[in-house]
Amino acid sequence: MKVALTFNVKPESESFSEDVSPIHNKSEGSSKISTDTYAEWDTWETIDAVKEALQTYNDVILVEADENSFNKIKEIRPDIVFNIAEGMNAVSREAQIPAMLDLLNIPYSGSDPLTLAICLDKARTKEILSYYKIPNAKFFVADDKDSIDDQKIKYPAIVKPVSEGSSKGIYSSSFVKSESELKTEVKRITEEYNQSALIEEFLPGREFTVAIIGNNSDTEVLPIIEINYKDLPQDFIPIYSFEAKWILDTKENPLDIYQCPAPLSPDLEIKIKNVALSAYKILRCRDWSRIDVRLDSSGEPNIIEVNPLPGILPDPNDNSCFPKAARTAGLSYNEMINKVLLAAARRYKLL
After folding, report:
1. Which residues contact 176 (CB under 8 A, 6 or more apart)?
2. Is residue 117 part of a domain?
3. Which of 8, 198, 288, 329 is least buried, going by the fewest C-beta atoms within 10 A?
C-alpha cells in the first residue's frame, strides 16, 4: 500500500530524514517558548523509526502536519495514513489531521476527530466516564483563581492544564495541600497555558498504564506496566510529572520506574483490564490507545487519562510505555507499528 505518515517534529530534533525538513528551528520564537511547549511532538528518531517499520511492507511518504498538509495529502492520495501528528494550536489540535482525512475520504490509523478532541480535554473525558460510572477521581474545573470553590474537593489534590498531554504543565508544585497552594497553581496554569485548570482529588494508590491494540473482538490488552516512584528524589511527589518524565528520566540516566509485567494479583489484573477496556470502548478509541490508571484509597482502579495518540519512542533505553508493553508481549517495534496499521486497514476493509 501507499502509506502517508503524518507527524509533528520537535524544533530541536536533529533530522535523519532526507525528504523532509523541520518547519521550525531552535531560534524561532525561542524567547516565547516554555520548556514543555513541544513535549507532545516527536523527534526525528521516532519519526524515522516509524517510517522504517511501515516500509517493511509499504511505500511510505512523510507528510508534516502543518498548514500545507491538506494539499500535500490531497495530491498524494495515499491508500491509508498512519497518523502520529499531535497538531498545532488550540485544544482541538489532535483532531486536525483526521478531520482533513475524513473530508478527503482517506483512511487513517487511530481514533476519529471527535474522540481525539474529547480525550485531549481531560474534563470532558471525565464527564463521559462519570456518566457511564467508570471510576475516576472527583474533580472540578477552574477558569481562574477567583472561581475556585474550596468545598468541592478534598486535599491533597492535583492541578493540571485541562487540555495538554505528555505531562505538560504538571510539576511537583501541582500537588497541592491547601487553598492558597491551589490558587497559586490555578493562576500559573491559566496564565502560562491560556486554558482552564483541572483540579482532581489525589489518588494515593499504585499507578499503572495499559496499552491496547485493536478493535471489537480483536482488541488486545498488552502486558500492564506499573509506574514505581522509588527512584525519584525524596523531595519529589510520587506523580509522573514533567520533571520526572523529561528531566530526571533520560536515556543517559534512566530511572528504574517501569515494571512490566506489573506484579498483580489475578483479581486486580482483571479489574485494571476491565476498567481500561471500558474506557477504550466508551470513548470510541480505535486501533490503539494507552490508558493510565491509579488505585484509590480502597484499592479500586480509577482512570487518570486516555491517550489515543500514545508515545512510541523506539529506543529500548528510553522509558516509553507502549513499546515496552509491546516488547513484553513479544512484539518488536516494527511488528507493533504494523499491527496498528493492520488494525486500521481491517477496519476500513482494505485487506
Report:
1. 155, 156, 157, 158, 159, 182, 184, 185
2. no
3. 329
Kindly state the DSSP code that residue 165 receives in the 8-state scheme.
-
Please return the burial class of 83, using the count of CB atoms within 10 Å of its CB with bins 0-12, 13-18 and 19+: buried
- The CATH number given to whatever domain includes residue 175 is 3.30.1490
For residues 171 and 255, state if they share a domain: no
Q: Is the peptide bond before 238 cis (omega within 30 degrees of 0)?
A: no
Q: CA angle 219-224-227, nearest 5°?
A: 140
* 101 and 146 share one domain: no
Residues 60-115 pLDDT 10s: 999 999 999 999 999 999 999 999 999 888 788 999 999 999 999 999 999 999 99
d(CA 25, CA 10): 9
Which one of 162, 181, 201 terminates a domain? 201
Give 136's strand partners.
303
Q: Is the peptide bond preceding residue 156 cis, with omega within 30 degrees of 0?
A: yes
Burial of 25 (0-12, 13-18, 19+ CB in 10 A): exposed
Which residue shows C-alpha cell 473530508?
103
SS3 218: helix
Cα(11)–Cα(50) distance, integer angstroms: 18
- Do 220 and 287 meet the contact criterion of CB atoms below 8 Å apart? no
Residue closest to 109 by CA, chosen among 274, 280, 288: 288
Tell me how far apart the alpha carbons of residues 341 and 97 are, in angstroms, rounded to a whole number.
Answer: 16
Range of the domain at 41: 2-108
Report pTM.
0.87
